[in-house]
Specification:
Number of domains: 3
Number of helices: 14
Radius of gyration: 24 Å
Largest sheet: 7 strands, parallel
Number of strands: 23
Helix content: 25-40%
Shape: globular
Length: 512
């Protein structure tokens, strides 16, 4: 690292600007000075050697694409002269399984211990709409419980409506129906949910009965059956919109004193399930916030907890780094099967995975999906890959795991939270303002200018890496914040009331 650029690996033929560069500025790599040929923004790539047309461009010591024209030292490397291309990768399955980390046994947080043994970091009541047709009813039930109506229940964090655009017009018990059931059931059973009710219309394809049976739902864990009412409210049975809203309000009023009985208690860090996400990424994401979050994820794994890496479309191009540290051949093969499924799935619609990065990603310095993915997978740390889960499947393994989710932030985080994640850490370079009830979302800025500009939304600045702070130091600060937030410290998004609208189940298949 120099004052104005970072050379990430000895084999890289580019470096990354750590501040805005002007034509004529100099960057120094391995005691060699390179003169910048045009203005280059922070996070963008500067060639430090000649690259012939068709030759590979390397970042992180890995190929991120191929030059489409001759590139000279000091030139800006971006979409005008670099494409992803296609090349063979050596998956080397299970050949680089890391040694088990030294166990960490002294890290704790204050959480809500549930009857099934899992631990919540928040204590909400959920009003879950099973179909879009009942979404307005669910919202009106939750809206009734403004802050003044919760003042007597200090241990309840709020009443949330989980609404969505699906629940009908889908193949009965097909893949989309199964995914939706996993999401809705996962939210009902989530350790951050103290109690819930389900609201449906009555004639939808996503029938209430199959949801209850498939997900084995119990309204309040640890409460005797005789004190539990039916969690199901069907509009067509109850007499319509107004009658269902009234019945739902009465049920929440009955639940409030029961849910309010929960109390925080000391819990080991092993009870944490961390969802890692990056959104609005830039060229610094894979340099600062993502690898620093990876350090925190490794700390959590060493503590016996679980760290989830999602966004399969942003693993594509870097999957060979993960198959090498898969625990078994079966785990490696499951990841590769998911990658191949995604290639098929986007092809059905005439798209390519390399349509990602987004416009904002490119403005921030990312050029190809491989470059984006190599930086994105750093969020998962360096531990052994223990398992690969389907979307919204319940995560039961400890350690580092992957969940198959899309790259779209709300849908991705919804799947990981439905799978049991009780805390989220979200890295951003462009400035994503994200929350996701019921799990608190900690936002990490990848660069200091954006953190200063959007401090009201950012919880921690990882851009200090560009000023010389070590990744280990930032990672330890992240881990400390995870424990504080899990204990009840509000995140910036929670303080602003963000997180109700980001519930977005990913549903595959045709709308019928």
């Amino acid at each position: 690292m120099t004052a104005n650029a970072i050379h990430l690996h000895s084999s890289d033929n580019i470096c990354v600007a750590s501040e805005d560069l002007q034509s004529g500025d100099c960057v120094m790599v391995d005691e060699e000075t390179v003169t910048v040929q045009q203005a280059i923004k922070m996070g963008h790539k500067v060639a430090i050697a000649s690259v012939a047309s068709g030759e590979a461009v390397r970042k992180y010591g890995q190929i991120i694409g191929f030059a489409t024209q001759e590139i000279g030292p000091g030139d800006w490397v971006h979409s005008h002269n670099l494409v992803n291309g296609d090349f063979e990768r050596d998956y080397a399955k299970c050949e680089s399984i890391p040694e088990a980390p030294t166990p960490v046994t002294d890290r704790q947080f204050m959480g809500y211990r549930r009857a099934d043994g899992r631990v919540g970091t928040r204590n909400y009541i959920a009003v879950i709409s099973t179909v879009n047709c009942s979404a307005s009813v669910a919202k009106n039930v939750a809206k009734y419980f403004e802050e003044d109506r919760l003042s007597d229940y200090s241990n309840v964090d709020g009443v949330i409506a989980f609404t969505h655009q699906s629940g009908c017009g889908m193949q009965y018990q097909g893949p989309g129906h199964q995914m939706l059931n996993r999401v809705l059931g996962g939210m009902a059973k989530h350790p951050n949910i103290g109690g819930y009710l389900l609201i449906g219309l009555g004639c939808e394809q996503g029938a209430m009965g199959i949801l209850l049976q498939d997900q084995k739902l119990v309204q309040i864990q640890g409460v005797p059956a005789e004190r539990q009412g039916p969690p199901v409210f069907v509009m067509q049975d109850l007499g319509g919109t107004a009658a269902t809203i009234e019945a739902g309000i009465r049920e929440v009023e009955r639940l409030l004193p029961l849910v309010d009985q929960a109390r925080r208690e000391p819990c080991p860090a092993s009870d944490l399930v961390l969802a890692t996400e990056c959104g609005g990424s830039d060229g610094n994401s894979g340099v600062t916030a993502n690898p620093a979050l990876g350090v925190a994820a490794d700390r959590l794994v060493a503590s016996g907890g679980t760290a989830i890496l999602g966004e399969t479309t942003e693993i594509y191009g870097a999957e060979h780094l993960l198959t090498r540290r898969a625990r078994t051949i079966e785990v490696a093969d499951k990841l590769l099967e998911r990658i191949e499924w995604w290639k098929w799935y986007v092809g059905v619609f005439g798209a390519e995975i390399d349509n990602n990065p987004s416009v904002g990603n490119k403005a921030g310095g990312l050029t190809t999906i491989t470059e984006k993915s190599l930086g994105a997978v750093a969020k998962g740390g360096t531990s052994t890959l223990e398992h690969v889960y389907e979307y919204a499947e319940q995560v039961t393994a400890s350690g580092f795991v992957i969940m198959d989710t899309p790259g779209y932030d709300p849908a991705s985080v919804t799947g990981m939270v439905a799978g049991g994640a009780n805390v989220v850490v979200f890295t951003t370079g462009r400035g994503s303002c994200f929350g996701c009830k019921p799990s608190p979302s900690i936002k990490l800025a990848t660069n200091t200018p954006m953190f200063d500009r959007m401090e009201a939304d950012m919880d921690l600045n990882a851009g200090t890496v560009l000023q010389g702070e070590s990744l280990d130091s930032v990672g330890e600060r992240i881990f400390d914040m995870i424990l504080r937030v899990a204990s009840g410290e509000p995140t910036k998004s929670e303080a602003q009331g963000i997180g109700d609208e980001e519930f977005l189940p990913w549903i595959v298949g045709p709308t019928l």
